[in-house]
Amino acid sequence: MTANVASYLLAWLASRWLGPVGYGEFASLLAAQLVLAVPALALQTVVAREAVRGKSTDALRSLGYRCTAIVAVLAVALTPAMAWLLDTGIVASFSALVTAPMLVLLATEQGLLQGHGRFGTLSAVLAGAGVMKVLPAVIVLAFGGGAGAALVAGAAGTALLVAIVRVVDRTVSVSEDRPVRIGVVSVLAASQVQLALIALSSLDLLIVRVVLSEYDAGVYALGAVATKVAFWLPQAVGVVLYPKMANPAHSAQAVRSALAVLVGIGAVLVLGAAVAGPLVPMLVGDAYAAVAPMLWAFALHGAALAVLQGALLSAIASERTRVAVLAWAGLAVEATVMLVWAKTPGELIGVAVVVASTTALAVSVAAVRSADRARPAPHTGVSSPDA
């Protein structure tokens, strides 16, 4: 909750201080940052899963260091392409992407805490990550800094938190009789699942600057804040139930519980967005009034993505990541229809809602069936004739 509130505060203040055009650029850079940070999300799930299975802490931290190095190289290599694609400066693009390797490093510690069930400490780290990324950026914006300077400040705050967590964390290394080196391939398998999810949650903010005017792109970017609220607000559901999803004995019930809670939370958020829509002009100014009647649709988009996230987490926990092909298919459909047909903010969010809802339903059904098949057969207590 703390991390999400901090993120929404940044979006609200940036939208007021940068205006629709400046905020459109800022939101697109944040979306690009999130895409490159996908290995951080995947790494946390893999580390948590392997911690549940008793892998050594030293081996898991070694995996984190290798993944961090790979993402750091990608951040540097992709900066020019991102600057060209989003029509932003090199410095601003690099400032957005340089945060990604630090998030990967932090994800290792978060995964260890999650896998060992230390949710109190994990909650403090997650809250700290949100505050340390947002607070420096808000200060820079308050003093008249632009999108690039704010992103640099956020990156510095994240780096400081990583250093603090690594020094303070006293997770004891689990000993193994035969230590096993965990390959990056396991993270790549989880990454393609997370990448499909994050791409679906960010694609509209990347395409919006291609198909809409700068003003309409800024208006859409503000509406997408409601998407992020509905998407990230129930994140704790997956965080807490994930270790049970990784245990075949509890996986089926954990998946059903997660999906049910996510649907319930999403319904409440969509209703809240419908009621709060008329307040948008009062909160952020009349320049964004056009988004007010569409706010519920943005919330529905985020709610569908949250359900999809819960289903995909169960796929990573059980190492049945092939189900992600459904999410990739949805992504291809969404990109094609948005680029060919969508010409207004309403049409763009309409496409996003239909694709996200359909994909979430398909993946959820597949996840529940997979968990049911993996459930261990009940022990009858009757000996076989050969016993």
Uncertain residue segments: 382-387
The average pLDDT is: 85
- Termini distance? 55 Å
Assign a percent range to the helix content.
over 70%
What sort of overall outline do the alpha carbons produce when their principal axes are compared?
globular
* Secondary-structure element order, N to C: HHHHHHHHHHHHHHH
What does this 3D model show about the protein?
- This protein has 387 residues and is mostly helical.
- The chain has 15 helices and no strands.
- Helix 3 packs parallel to helix 8 (184-211).
Provide the fold topology:
Blueprint: H1 2-36, H2 38-52, H3 57-86, H4 90-97, H5 99-115, H6 119-142, H7 147-168, H8 184-211, H9 214-232, H10 235-245, H11 251-276, H12 280-284, H13 295-317, H14 324-340, H15 345-374
Helix pairs in contact: 1-3, 1-4, 1-6, 1-8, 1-9, 2-3, 2-5, 2-8, 3-4, 3-5, 3-8, 4-7, 5-7, 6-7, 8-9, 8-13, 8-14, 9-11, 9-13, 10-11, 10-13, 11-13, 11-15, 13-15, 14-15
What keyword list fits this structure?
mainly alpha; 80% helix; disordered C terminus
Give a short overview.
The chain has 15 helices and no strands. With 387 residues, the chain is mainly alpha-helical.
